[in-house]
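Many introductory courses stop at the sequence. We go one step further.
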Amino acid sequence: MRTLLLIISIAGAYVLLHGWSSGPGLILRASLAGAVIVAGLILWGTGRKASTRCRRMASLKKATLLDYCSLGMIILFIAACFVVFTSTLAQPAQKFAYLIHDSITGVDNNERMSGDHTRDIGDGSTLGQDHAGPWIFKKNLERDLPQQSNIKPTNKPEAFLEITNHHDATSLLDSRIYLSTFAFSQFNGSSWSALPSPRTIQEAPIRFPKIISELPSIPHRIYHAANPTGQNVFTSLQGAVTTDVKTLTKLAESIYLLPDNLDTGNGYDYYATSQPVLLTQLLEKKIIPARADKGELVLPQDMLKRLRKTASHFKKEPDTISQLRALRSYLHKNYTYSLKTTNKSGSSPLENFLYTEKRGYCEHFATAAALLCRALGIPSRIAYGWSGGLFYPAQNMFVFRAKDAHAWTEIKIKGYGWVVFDTTPPDANATSETETAPDNEQAPDPNKALNTDIEKSNQDHDNATAGARVDHKKSLAVLGALCLCLLIFFTLRYINRGQTTPDGRPITHSQPSYLVHFKQTTAALGYPMPLGRTLRQHILKLKTTEIAPKFLDDLLAYHYQMTYADTNKNPALEKQLNQNIRQWKNTYTKKLSSNFLVE
């Protein structure tokens, strides 16, 4: 039981040192952690009997309150040193780790995108971590499918889409809006990534490769917040053709980095033109898959047979459109949309979705559809962004919130390029249709709404990381103060230390009651015991006087046995000695008083 309490105290101290959102400061948490450890050690050391092994390791001196206070101060000092040490070396250590990683992989560290923090996306997740903005992939342009998920949507505005022409805005309501940020075409079984390519700078006028001629172009304006980390990806309606952005950095196909925005409070505001194309627009046409580029037909080897077997159900259909319809129907009928997945089997996220748990959110549906399309011989990829949104007719403005974040499949069709093939079930909990605000309701100002969101996100981030941040100057000052306190404390303790015998017992200890009583009585009778005189010397002195009692030899013998012979205490004998001393005092006090009266 005592060991269990010690383990609990250690776990509690760890939690205190680790900290939590909106928790107390570092110094208070470290102090509490030290107190918890000391309390655990006190409880652990209160056992009546120790085992043979414990006795071998036991201290020669019984621990006192001062010892436990010393231990607490040492733990506090070590905790403060650990915090200062780790917080100081965190950034250099990360840079060193990147240097080693880059030397092995051959990746140039200067080409890394700043801010490696990522967050899982789903219907209702934010596309950024603590700031609005689509930057959910890693520095190496890779995104892992989450093993488990429990996404809780919010209504936080993340992007604004203003359509230049009112007719275009209303026509978009008849189909479905896809605001695209980036797309991945490489899949290794557990994560999506982009095909590596050298970075290239594109300058105005910027045009994106597009081969559609029969579909209308839709000019529009995009607003989204600027991310302080610099991960700002070009965003537009699916099928971008042109933009008025002066320079873009191409990271990979369909992934373009916006120029740095020095005034991050104002966010990004730019124009673009797109020719969005959805499979639903091509249902009456005869389509055939386009030629696949590298990686666009690759299937993970560990699931190759199962994916081809599943796709064989749709291959029986007479044409590509029928196969795609059958595939989407299959996913809708056999799989459940859910923002929460458990993956109790511990299998890969895709295998868990397709063959075990059979539930997931948009990214699971999009991944499954992309790979089943590849098993049918149709080049595919997965795209991320927003869909749905809230439409304000008066301003031709679409507002996309965090809950509108979405992932979908895109397939490459000859003559059309990348076409949206969305297989997420069309219900209120998944891919909800665009909502329309009342005609007289004004859309929120994009810059004001996004700036407010940035300030709130920064404040939330500050609150969430308050326990983890360390002010190095203050920490070093506190550490110096602790060092000084420890130095003074142990110096005073060394000066005032008590001498001990070889077995750990203190040589100077409190005087027994009978000895104190004896000294007080001799002083009252006119024979005080001077400092430096031993008990034997004082008794010899008393024996030369007329007031010497008969029990002096018994007193001396018992006291020397207790002091030098390590004899066990005899309470009965000590009680008798005290009675003798009291009787002696009373007898000679009365005699002295009577002599004083006679004189």
